[in-house]
Amino acid sequence: MMKLPKPLLILILSSLQRCLASVIPQVPLASNSGASPAATTSNLPLIVWHGLGDNYKADGLQSIAELVNQTIGGTYTYFIHLDEDASADRTATFLGNVTTQIDQACEDLRTHPILSQAPAVNAIGFSQGGQFLRGYVERCNNPRVANLITFGSQHNGISEFNNCEDNDWLCKTWSGYLKTKTWSEWVQSHLVPAQYFRDPEDLDSYLEYSNFLVDVNNEKDVKNSTYKKNIAGLKNFAMYMFANDTTVVPKESAFFHEVNTTSGKITKLQDREIYKEDWLGLKILDEANQLQLNTIPGGHMQLTEDLLSEVFQKYLKAD
After folding, report:
1. Whether the predicted model's global pTM rises above the 0.85 cut
2. 300 is catalytic
């Protein structure tokens, strides 16, 4: 495996934070312990995975925990984090091996004194946190997820990395490296956004070298039946796409749609093999009216309290 000198690692991380941090969620939550106070209702606990450039102690995330409680009553909310230190947790959104990160989340949730005793949990993923939570459902799902809700996530990957500012030469240096080395072993095991890069015009490279997305999308020749079983076992899988999202390219990835990078032609989920052959159980959910694709106004992660309150009432409030 290629090893990079520490100065280059620092340059890459610094540039990552400047090039890619535009996807920080507008509203999310967290207390110092990574969890809200214990629930006082029969609502299932809620787990949340934040997006790129954010951290589990971000001020915005605190407002979501408060809004959940205001909307549907006391709900135990746990914020997935990869380090107790907020800065290190933020760094992990840029730099790390997604497979290892999901393994860590699986272990943390499995051994959590409250979550491990719950009959099930609900889950919300913001941006890249959405496909990571889906990976959690597929790979471990202990505690079991009842309702999975994702906002602006890249379920079918990204076909472009974020552009740099005209005068940001550090960003451009890093971006050039990433674009030419996307499929290298080092990049695929260290740079988080590269691990869900998927160019429909170069599927051969993706199928051979992708470290994360090719697996959780069950696109390998040998399908993982557990992945399909776990997704099909969801009570609801609600996906939200931002109508004016220019951060995620293509934005339609939020719905598993595929967009031809040359012609711009959109192939909807229901017209793709992943659905027709039901590699992930999405067809099962859809035919049972348990798969919801919702387009909402605004740019990436521009969420309003009214919208979130509606989502909380619909998916998180106990029957």
Report:
1. yes
2. yes
